[in-house]
Amino acid sequence: MKEMQPYNGLIRQIGELLKTGREQAGRAINTILVQTYWQIGKHIVEFEQGGKAKAEYGAELLDRLSKDLTLEFGKGFSRSNLFQIRQFYSRFPKVQTLSGQLSWSHYTEILKADNDLEISFYARQCEKENWSVRELKRQMKSMLFHRLALSKDKAGVLQIAEQGAEIQKPADIIKDPYVFEFLGISQQFHYKEGELEEKLIRNLEEFLLELGKGFAFIGRQYRISLANRHFFVDLVFYHRILKCFVLIDLKRGEIEHNDIGQMNLYLNYFAREENVEGDNPPIGIVLGAYKDHILVEYATENISNQLFVSKYQLYLPDKAELSAELEKLLEDDTN
């Protein structure tokens, strides 16, 4: 058995080398593929801009290219693929802006966004948070860009479009609404707060993706004992970027003023009893299905703690409605 140990170590070392090598080879192939498609798109666009396309082929350029390239080089040159390749170059005209981390599958998803602001945001955010294609699809379906943008002014919208979402202060982690469509709960289903919490824990990976970058799960029903009374925080996280606890309380219906007061109590307790040297003040988020903006405004006024009130919904937001709101925000800010 002892003689086998060095040999087993050799097997592990070779396995690690093979895994690393294959990953590096995959990234290199991906980078070459993305850059090749960019170059193909460049040639198509420059040919069209030269006027030859209209003179010789008109609207049939991509059709003819598809047939001729498929005949000579095989699959991969359908009309729809060539359209995406041309669009890819048009949306990313500077090759320096391409990311070596994003695959062609990432870019084909990103190109489905409606405008340059969204495209730029998802490309930056995907690279920053190392999203898989599946994660990217989910974030785009949940209208992440719109949900973040609507909480900002025009300058803030342009900043997150150009740079992605930066987490520098507590407010940067807040979304309104949060979207829990991954739980598969029907709007008509009468669920309890405990059931919602249970489903979120069972789907922790998706929940963390919705919360955003930097969250580490600490526990659920976190007990606080004060004067022989026990209180329980629904969910407790630690945010490694902001270096603070994040407390989340879930409310099945509308958020009431006493829910906000209770969260304030939790924050005071954590600041004094749970924080250690190096921790920043905790953040509290009360999440409910509904909230009254005026009630929230009065209930949170003069609270010194970092306490936020937001909505959650169990279905994907309406794309047309959010797009209209964002357009109005940008127009109003311009006037």
TrEMBL record:
<dbReference type="InterPro" id="IPR041527">
    <property type="entry name" value="YhcG_N"/>
</dbReference>
<dbReference type="InterPro" id="IPR053148">
    <property type="entry name" value="PD-DEXK-like_domain"/>
</dbReference>
<dbReference type="InterPro" id="IPR011856">
    <property type="entry name" value="tRNA_endonuc-like_dom_sf"/>
</dbReference>
<dbReference type="InterPro" id="IPR009362">
    <property type="entry name" value="YhcG_C"/>
</dbReference>
<dbReference type="Pfam" id="PF17761">
    <property type="entry name" value="DUF1016_N"/>
</dbReference>
<feature type="domain" description="YhcG PDDEXK nuclease">
    <location>
        <begin position="172"/>
        <end position="326"/>
    </location>
</feature>
<dbReference type="GO" id="GO:0003676">
    <property type="term" value="F:nucleic acid binding"/>
</dbReference>
<protein>
    <submittedName>
        <fullName>DUF1016 domain-containing protein</fullName>
    </submittedName>
</protein>
<dbReference type="Pfam" id="PF06250">
    <property type="entry name" value="YhcG_C"/>
</dbReference>
<feature type="domain" description="YhcG N-terminal">
    <location>
        <begin position="14"/>
        <end position="147"/>
    </location>
</feature>
